[in-house]
Design brief:
The chain has helices spanning about 1-10, 10-35, 45-65, 65-95, 100-120, 130-155. It is mainly alpha-helical. Helix 4 (about 65-95) packs antiparallel against helix 5 (about 100-120).
Length: about 160
């Protein structure tokens, strides 16, 4: 919870930290892809796996070289993904009209769609703080969940 509050206190720094973690994961995935490429028997698939691994490694280094550009691209992707996800939930919700929670699904889709739209309307400026806000909120909810679990286990003991 404290880490989430700190992240929300400095969302730009939290955004950069998020980008560095994504960059590190890209590097690890790229190395794994390159190692996996050497286990493939056919040349065509070997070259494809090797190319994918090298691209992941290059993308990881780009995130370390220019974290704000990487944050802008990740935020753009996030906004687009939220819009598509929101639209899909709205369509799914209306297709469930005869069932019980269809209104909740539609409401969830509208909120997701609007969140993605807000992110894209304010892009690229939103890329400075959106990832940090999401990280801070996530850390607060995860921390609160651990606290709740601990208190529940304490009562059960």
């Amino acid at each position: 919870v404290i880490a989430g509050i700190i992240a929300l206190g400095s969302v730009v720094l939290a955004t950069v930290a998020t980008v560095f973690v994504v960059g590190l994961m890209m590097l690890i995935a790229g190395v794994a892809e390159v190692i996996n490429a050497f286990q493939i028997k056919s040349w065509g698939k070997f070259l494809l796996w090797l190319l994918l691994g090298v691209l992941y490694i290059l993308a990881g280094f780009v995130t370390f070289e220019n974290p704000l550009l990487a944050a802008a691209l990740l935020t753009l992707f996030l906004g687009c993904a939220l819009i598509v996800s929101g639209l899909m939930r709205i369509v799914l919700g209306f297709s469930m009209r005869g069932e019980m929670p269809w209104g909740g699904v539609v409401l969830s889709g509208v909120i997701t769609f609007l969140l993605g739209l807000i992110i894209l309307i304010h892009w690229p400026v939103s890329s400075l703080y959106i990832l940090g806000i999401f990280l801070g909120i996530d850390l607060i909810f995860v921390g609160a969940s651990w606290i709740g679990l601990g208190l529940g286990l304490r009562r059960a003991a």
